[in-house]
């Protein structure tokens, strides 16, 4: 990679690092979507009160197993909704009990997944800022090497290769972050759809 290309990469990296944190409350949030730290139960659940459930859903083996299955995004939503309908059978009281347990289990599990993804995104954003500083510093070193009276070509080549690698890692992370930024929204949508299915099947 020529020095001009490296300098252009540094400029792009610095610009991306500076502009992505749109909300000053969350300086490490890298996504264009606004950061919503937690899902509100009221936003996804209008069924019977669930204050009495707590973590008791974990004590029901069938509920815990189904929660793990439904929370896995590799399971198509249509299949997950069918599994909910198949599970919520019995008397009105039984359906209510099972529905509440299932919802709380899904809420706890998907919310934890969502938090983990968002924390990971912010960790990567901090690494990206560090990477920008490292690339900028190494670029200055390379310029100094090349401008010396008798540049050591082996060291120049080594530094150039290092800068190639650093900018490549930066771009790879940037591409991954762009994809992962969609995950919290996908989790929100899955939880909302499954909560609605549970409430419909409880009726």
Q: Explain this structure to me?
A:
With 203 residues, this protein is mainly α. It has one domain (3-202). The chain is 72% helix and 0% strand. It has seven helices and no strands. It has helices spanning 3-19, 41-44, 61-71, 77-87, 92-147, 153-180, 183-202. It is elongated and about 90 Å long.
Q: How many domains, as an integer?
A: 1
**Could you list the spans in which at least 5 consecutive residues all have pLDDT below 50?**
none
Number of helices: 7
Please give the number of β-strands.
Answer: 0
Roughly how many Å is the radius of gyration?
A: 25 Å
Q: Structural class of the helix and strand makeup?
A: mainly alpha
Strand proportion, as a percent range, falls in: under 5%
Outline, from the CA principal axes?
A: elongated
Largest sheet: none
Descriptive key words:
elongated; 203 residues; single chain; 7 helices; mainly alpha
Helix-strand blueprint:
Layout: H1 3-19, H2 41-44, H3 61-71, H4 77-87, H5 92-147, H6 153-180, H7 183-202
Helix pairs in contact: 1-5, 1-6, 3-5, 4-7, 5-6, 5-7
Summarize the structure.
The chain has 203 residues and is an all-alpha fold. The chain is 72% helix and 0% strand. It has one domain.
